[in-house]
Write a structure and sequence with these properties.
26% strand, alpha+beta, seven-stranded mixed β-sheet, single chain, globular, 2 domains, FAD/NAD(P)-binding domain
Length: 446
């Protein structure tokens, strides 16, 4: 597909960050932009599944929340359990004192992307695919623009470039921006260094409190955690792959795989996921009779993947190569999925960035020598916010990775058992539940 020669703004990447950047530009009055992506069509796998209150507010501020609200499951709480009993529950209802959206939305990422793409289409904008960036250089005639070249030979000249092209960002690489863990190189500094995620159905359908929609459940074992989120039949059509019909309720499962178990397969098969469920999951989805009086087994494996839970952040999220270049989403920062913060921060970054860019466009029209103060201040603020989130998710990982091994021979307690006891006690107090829900919601770190 032919691209224009010039554009005020070029958005590279059409994941949640790129799509919301485009919607935010339109909302704030800028329509002179192009959004491109390197792949032929959007992903059809679920990946991130949680949209927190602060992100719903940000989406609502650009009129992009209504359809997601109608499609998603409104999450009531996040629970921490042992294999057979509840330890702690953070209910979202107390957030109604602070937000019109006192819940987390549970919705697969591909559904989120589909909704955002359709919203863009209703506004007359389409993602241009497939267009892979291979180079950038300052324009020879206009020092405030950049020539962006693509694999198919086309070139766009742009004044602002938003790099929303993921953890392996070509925009970040060409711009010469470093990308590393803010705490330095410390691989495998915790036991939750690798995870497996899958969408599955069970036979027979599991029963019990953890299988009720509206709750995200984390079952802690020694040095690991197993997540279970019921989707019901809400997303069966969107998660169908290879033409296979799905009629049973779908469950998202995720498990931190201990490093001593070896590296998980690239696309873990059903048997591998079943073994994780039997070894670390809640009793209600176990196929082991001694754990579950009504054993269940994974029936359909809809999708699975593995990933590492490392953290990294760009040295800076704003630079110039002629054009003003920004990084958002995974191009700017990555971290563990603990607390479901990654996509949320990406969306908020993109929405707020587009507002700042439109203000800078307007200011530049009135005064060509306006400078970059507005852009630099925004970039520094979002960089600081990303560092906060990285620290927050690392602390959650440390808490989840505690083991039940005795602290010492003379003290028959383990760090994990002390954690569980404290959570059981503190969970009785409403203000503690409220503080945990507040921390996860993002309302205090928009």
């Amino acid at each position: 597909m032919s691209l224009p020669d010039n554009s005020t703004v070029l958005i590279v990447g059409a994941g949640p960050a790129g799509l919301t950047a485009a919607l935010s530009l339109i909302h704030h009055g800028c329509r002179d932009f192009v959004i491109v992506d390197a792949i032929v069509e959007g992903q059809n796998v679920s990946r991130a599944i949680t949209i927190h209150s602060a992100t719903v507010e940000a989406l609502a501020s650009i009129n992009a929340a209504d359809v997601l609200l109608s499609r998603a499951i409104k999450g009531k709480s996040i629970r921490i359990t042992s294999r057979d009993s509840q330890i702690f529950e953070a209910k979202f209802d107390p957030l109604k004192k602070y937000s019109a959206y006192p819940y987390a939305l549970f919705v697969p990422q591909n559904v989120t992307e589909l909704v955002l793409v359709q919203k863009l289409q209703t506004l007359g904008v389409r993602v241009q695919r497939p267009h892979r960036v291979i180079g950038m250089k300052q324009n020879e005639q206009d020092p405030h623009t950049t020539d962006v070249s693509f694999e198919d030979g086309q070139v766009i000249r742009a004044r602002y470039i938003i790099g929303a092209d993921g953890a392996r960002s070509i925009i970040r690489t060409i711009s010469g921006i470093g990308f590393s863990d803010p705490d330095g190189p410390n691989p495998n500094n915790h036991l939750l260094a690798q995870m497996v995620v899958a969408d599955v159905t069970f036979e027979p359908e599991p029963v019990g409190p953890l299988t009720i929609e509206g709750h995200l459940n984390g079952t802690v074992s020694s040095g690991t955690i197993f997540m279970l989120t019921p989707f019901g039949n809400h997303f069966n059509d969107e998660l169908t792959r290879d033409g296979k019909s799905i009629t049973k309720p779908i469950f998202r499962v995720a498990c931190a795989v201990p490093v001593e178990n070896g590296e998980p397969p690239h696309a873990p098969p059903k048997e591998y996921i079943q073994d994780l469920a039997d070894t670390y999951g809640p009793a209600c989805i176990s196929s082991v009779l001694s754990l579950n009086p009504t054993p269940v087994k994974i029936d359909q494996l809809i999708w699975s993947t593995r990933f590492r839970t490392h953290s990294a952040i760009a040295d800076r999220t704003f630079t110039r190569l002629g054009a003003a270049i920004f990084l958002v989403g995974d191009a700017a920062h990555i971290h563990s999925p603990a607390g479901g913060q990654g996509m949320n921060l990406a969306i908020r970054d993109a929405i707020f960035l587009s507002e700042v860019i439109t203000k800078h466009i307007q200011a530049s029209a009135e005064n060509p020598d306006v400078g970059d103060t507005l852009l630099q201040e925004f970039a520094e603020a979002r960089h600081a916010r990303a560092l906060e989130i990285i620290s927050f998710t690392k602390n959650l990982l440390k808490l989840a990775s505690l083991t039940y091994n005795p602290y010492a021979w003379w003290m028959p307690f383990s760090r994990a058992s002390v954690r569980d006891l404290m959570l059981r006690i503190l969970g009785r107090f409403d203000f503690v539940q409220s503080r945990v829900a507040w921390g996860l919601s993002g309302l205090g770190r928009r």
